[in-house]
């Protein structure tokens, strides 16, 4: 009867330990995601305030890693009119991200979409 009691207590202790480890992981993960969302919000605000980027839709999106040290990646998505503008956008976002959090990594997901000529502009040029 003593062995059964010891095994039961050991099993309960193991279950409690597993629950504690899982709860700690979930808590840490939630904290990392919250930090990444705060960084994303700060970068989005900085992009919206920047005069150079007015009229261009740029979306910085933060992603936090799930394991080990909290590693945040900023994916910069949107459409820009030229390769030169793309470089300006990436330099700006990288500088802002580094200012807010020096260990952040930025990834370029920008598309170059040349501005289209408006129909009224082409008629005026012809006529």
Briefly summarize what is shown.
The protein is α+β, with helices and mostly antiparallel strands and 127 residues long.
Biggest β-sheet: strands ordered side by side in the sheet: 1-2-3
CATH architecture: 2-Layer Sandwich
CATH homologous superfamily identity: Cation efflux protein, cytoplasmic domain
CATH level 3 topology: Alpha-Beta Plaits
The first-level CATH class name? Alpha Beta
How large is the count of helical segments?
3
Order of helices and strands: HEEHEH
Radius of gyration: 25 Å
- Beta-strand percentage? 15-25%
Mean pLDDT: 87
Report the major sheet: 3 strands, mixed
Keywords:
single chain, 127 residues, alpha+beta, Alpha-Beta Plaits, 3 helices
Describe the structure.
This protein has one domain (36-126): Cation efflux protein, cytoplasmic domain (Alpha-Beta Plaits, 2-Layer Sandwich), CATH 3.30.70.1350. Helix 1 (2-49) packs across helix 2 (83-100). The mean pLDDT is 87. The protein contains three helices and three strands. With 127 residues, it is an alpha+beta fold. Helices cover 58% and strands 19% of the residues.
How are the SSEs ordered, and which strands pair?
Layout: H1 2-49, E1 58-64, E2 72-80, H2 83-100, E3 105-112, H3 119-126
Parallel strand pairs: 2-3
Antiparallel strand pairs: 1-2
Helix pairs in contact: 1-2
């Amino acid at each position: 009867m003593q062995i059964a009691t010891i095994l039961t207590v050991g099993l309960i202790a193991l279950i409690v330990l597993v629950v504690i480890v899982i709860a700690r992981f979930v808590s840490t993960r939630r904290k990392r995601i919250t930090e990444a969302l705060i960084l994303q919000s700060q970068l989005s605000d900085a992009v919206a305030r920047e005069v150079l980027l007015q009229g261009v839709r740029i979306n910085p999106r933060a992603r936090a890693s799930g394991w080990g040290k909290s590693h945040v990646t900023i994916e910069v998505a949107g459409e820009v009119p030229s390769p030169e503008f793309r470089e300006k956008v990436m330099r700006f976002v990288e500088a802002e991200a580094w200012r807010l959090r020096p260990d952040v990594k930025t990834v370029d997901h920008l598309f170059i979409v040349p501005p289209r000529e408006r129909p009224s502009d082409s008629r005026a040029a012809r006529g």
